[in-house]
Specification:
Strand order of the largest sheet: 2-1-10-9-4-5-6
Organism: Chanos chanos (Milkfish)
Number of domains: 2
Radius of gyration: 25 Å
CATH topology of the largest domain: Immunoglobulin-like
Helix content: under 10%
CATH superfamily of the largest domain: Immunoglobulins
Distance between the termini: 48 Å
Order of helices and strands: EEEEEEEEEEEEEEEEEHH
Number of helices: 2
Protein name: Hepatocyte cell adhesion molecule-like
Strand content: over 45%
Structural class: mainly beta
CATH class of the largest domain: Mainly Beta
CATH architecture of the largest domain: Sandwich
Largest sheet: 7 strands, antiparallel
């Protein structure tokens, strides 16, 4: 998950954080010691924060705080600061948040963030079809690495620490795949890496298991 906050409470600058799905995030207002009778409102939306998710006010001397059902008891408001904690944050919580604090004057702050899931481990297997033979270079073993696609996922082949090639796609309905050819008597270490802004998974290529036919040619 990727968190970007823009402060419009008189404090300049942007706050940018990276958070993954399942973590607990607190959206800080920057206030301390708010008056007990302030009205605190939190809004959320994919682009424009129009949907009210928290309303906290004092009625007949009692503090009444109401939370949106959509977040299913995952929200907790701090009345002293107006800050909001979101537990077990998930991808559908992505979007823009706005806190509005009303006490004589109207103050507010905007948060915009994207939630990323942990990238799955890539799978490495034998590529379908016959192995290629290229003149004096000898036989080659064709393998392919694949991973379920997701937001900002990149798939890469490495030889040692050197990146050989990589791929990504905005189409989240299709898996990512990346082929690789290994030459005969190749003793290098190959690994396939899937990553996004919050996580990385690596699968080593087992040449002995997948390319055993090379030694028999």
């Amino acid at each position: 998950m990727y968190l970007s906050a823009t402060n419009v409470l008189g404090v300049t600058g942007d706050e940018v954080k990276t958070v993954r799905e399942g973590e607990t995030v607190t959206l800080h207002t920057g206030f301390t010691g708010l008056q007990s009778d302030v009205l605190i409102l939190w809004f959320h939306g994919p682009v424009d924060p129009k949907t009210k998710i928290v309303q906290s006010q004092v009625l007949r001397g009692e503090i009444i705080t109401e939370y949106s059902d959509r977040f299913r008891d995952r929200l907790q408001l701090d009345r002293q600061t107006g800050s909001l904690t979101i537990r077990n944050i998930n991808i559908t919580d992505s979007g823009v948040y706005k806190v509005q604090i009303i006490s004589g004057e109207d103050s507010y702050k905007i948060f915009s963030y994207t939630v990323y899931a942990t990238v799955p481990a890539p799978l490495v297997g034998k590529k379908q079809g016959r192995s290629a033979v290229s003149g004096s270079s000898g036989p080659k073993c064709s393998v392919v690495c694949s991973v379920e696609n997701g937001r900002d996922v990149t798939l890469s082949w490495y030889k040692g620490k050197e990146i050989l090639n990589q791929t990504s796609s905005p189409d989240l309905n299709t898996n990512l795949s990346l082929p690789l050819e290994i030459e005969d008597q190749d003793n290098n270490t190959y690994s396939c890496v899937a990553d996004n802004p919050v996580s990385q998974q690596t699968t080593q290529l087992n040449i002995t298991e997948l390319c055993s036919h090379i030694s028999r040619n």
